[in-house]
Target: Alpha/beta hydrolase
Amino acid sequence: MLSEPPRPDDLPDGPTGYAALPPDYPPPPPGAGDGTATAPPPGGRVPRSSLRRVLAAVAVLAVVAVAVLAVWRVGNPPPVAQPGVPVPASSASGVPTPSTPGAPSPGSSLPRDYPAALSAFYTQRLTWSPCSDNPQHQCTTMQVPVDYAQPGGDRFTLALRKAPATDPGKRVGSLVINPGGPGASGVEYAQYASFVFSPAVRAAYDIVGFDPRGIGASSPVRCLTNSDMDLLFSADPTPDSPAERSQLLADVDGVTKRCAARGGVRARHMSTAEVARDMDVMRVLLGDPKLNFFGGSYGTFLGAMYADAFPKKVGRMVLDSAMSPNQTDQQEMTYDIQGFESSIDAFIAWCVARPDCALGRDKGAARQKIVDLLDAVEKTGLTTTKPGLSRIGEGWVGFSIFMCLYSDTSWPTLNQGLAQAFTGKGDILLAKGMSVVERSSSGAYAPSTYLQAMLPVRCADWPRSRTDASVLAAQQKAKAAHPLWARMTGELYDNCRDWPTPGRTEKGTTLAVGADPILVIGNQRDPATPIGGTKQLAKDLDSGILLTSDHDGHGTYYAGNPCVDSAVDGYLLRGTVPADGTTC
Model:
């Protein structure tokens, strides 16, 4: 697999092979979604492990919470255009309709332990209909208040997709899933349920994905223009003078202000804490006494927030490639360095063993060659054949290099992209970056791109960064000791300082006290959600159980490690947890 050349979709102007899907998704084989798919997709061999890692990478967090461009640098492969989701008659008026007395309701047998003011939401009906793109899946919508403090006000309409359990006789319940981002589509995630979960899990669970409030097909909030997003990638992330730094900060602050103004009230209510409350409404409407949940990457943040708010409602919860809501700026930076350097070292070790390695055969000198390349790119840029981006700088180049580290299947692309970059050309790297953020050659970003949601969610979810002398000194020391990481990360700066609402208040204590066991898993060498953050979340959760995989890349379950798959399946199917601290 690692000796294969780059996939055509990673190269300039490569075909996607499937209408409306990003290049990283092959066409689903016959039976996809109904548990019968066995043949590889047409057009070439796609190992299950590589596909699973791509799917897991649908969910990626902002690696450095205080980085001015980090929130954009560590994005994820984009969600696809959403399939048609029918609007149930019960919500056509824009107001949830409570179940009529005596009528069957999914949650009618559950305890009425929700606030009376939210009764209309907890008792609304879900009217499922066959999804337009796959009649074996079911789609619906539900409504939640924009502001839970004012439930009689404006509402978000959330899109849901269900892949029903393939063996109803073995059905355990619903498994709600979220691929993270923030900004990725859970509806799309459920669309590929047969690739994401084992046949045994598919047999036992209705896989239910949803687009979080303001995202995808759920009353989308689109607060950034094409020019705003281009500005974030074209700005110099490593300013060398006070004037350059002032320009960078002015550009990013301007984007933040414009997003807040365009997004309005809804953009100020896209926090993960509010999405967690939406999931509790969903749990009752699905008829589940407890929430069974699988979250990947930033979806682990959502799972942890739900578990902390509703610890007694936690069922079987798996948090894959994780991060903790309790992480401080300093911890985040430490984990980021560890995750990035372990991943780049793994790539370098693979590369220098090849006769065609763009970095040569000397492992010790390889990292410095990338540093030198980025320094040269900052000065002169790389030329490309893309209209409107005839020359790209550090922003696009660093982002694209980082994205190639998400999975070892992209290492050949990175090798060829670096080789081309050393000649002054950037087509291969730019094609990779553009495919991730869904930017067309004409300069238009797809409405579904996760970038639209990154800023409102990030600014709601994280406490405002401290800027005292000790923090700044620690940042400067880290950047000096890790020059390649420093160039990839860019200027360390809180790009939410001009957001109109405050960030989340830090808790800094044990999370989800009294919850059932929560399984937290992660790869030892993950550039996006470093293993340090995964370990911290397992420790911060009162009932956290840690399982690690001695693998590279982002995404752990169903990614080619049978030991991990067996442990996760045993937990989801039988409630059996592995010993805390197990390594596969």
Observations:
- The CA atoms of residues 546 and 581 lie 5 Å apart.
- DSSP finds 20 helices and twelve strands in the chain.
